[in-house]
Amino acid sequence: MYQVLKSRGVLSAVIAVASLTTVPLAGQAPTTPTGATMKAKTWTPPRTRDGQPDLQGMWTNATITPFERPAALAGKPFLTEQEAAAFETQAAERRVEAERAPKPGDVGSYNDAWFDQGTRVVSTLRTSLVIDPPDGRVPLTKAAEAARDRNLTNEDSFELMSPWDRCITRGPGGMFPAGYNNAYQIIQTPGYVVIVQEMIHEARVIPLDGRAHVDTAVRRWTGDPRGRWDGNTLVVETTNFNGKGWIATNAASARIRGVPHSDALRLVERFTRVDAGTIGYEITIEDPNVYTRPWTVSIPLVRDDSYQMFEYACHEGNKAIEHVLGAARAAERR
To answer: pTM for the full model?
Structure first.
């Protein structure tokens, strides 16, 4: 709940930034950043011993940039540097206020020391992590919205609850920023790339040898990834999902949290190291049973050699889900 409140505070800050803009938002020409997207044209990445572009290291993607573009910023894909600075200041003020003055009846949560959702907007200055469609909004079907609403209010079965709450997986959108544990370690060996994510300590082992996907009868929670190099860009295609999960499980994903995916889900990720401290990361999501068209998210990954991962032990022995379902059954009996 605290994450949800903080996410709402971030959106409020964006709306406040919009009100500071002196030029009308609708139809405003985008401000093209001079950051990561431009550096890739002039920077040559180092190579591993076997000649792969070197993506290795510890990378983080914590950011206060909203997942989808707020309605108040419609038609404005980029912030100016001045707007970004104002947004970051207002977001910091709201975090302090949220701790100082909790709402009546709010039982509270961790204090801000335990969160790591970042303090900065993305270096590209985009107004949302969703970059396609151009409006920065995920193209959900009505059926997908209804399924999301059912999932988020479900008290009937643990099988309809979040796979993150159930400690199974963060889901296919495992590299979407969350309130904490936004670290990823990339390791390269001949023929493979391994991505270890801090949240639920999953490791994706991605073969690069051109092998075909496993048989379509084999279905997995995290799918079946296959990688290849396109110049200096690592392209990873993942299929063979089991259709039991959610595309996003954390509150920072806002309207997308709780949206299920089907077994037709296909992901295409692109990792491009654009300078010594940045990987340009993009993921395109296709699922004709859930979305009216494919959509794309872009998040810069920032190198942090000082970051240390610790095991995310999740909730082994935790009684939370049992208590949620038990309380619902007790309410029904009353």
So the answer is: 0.85
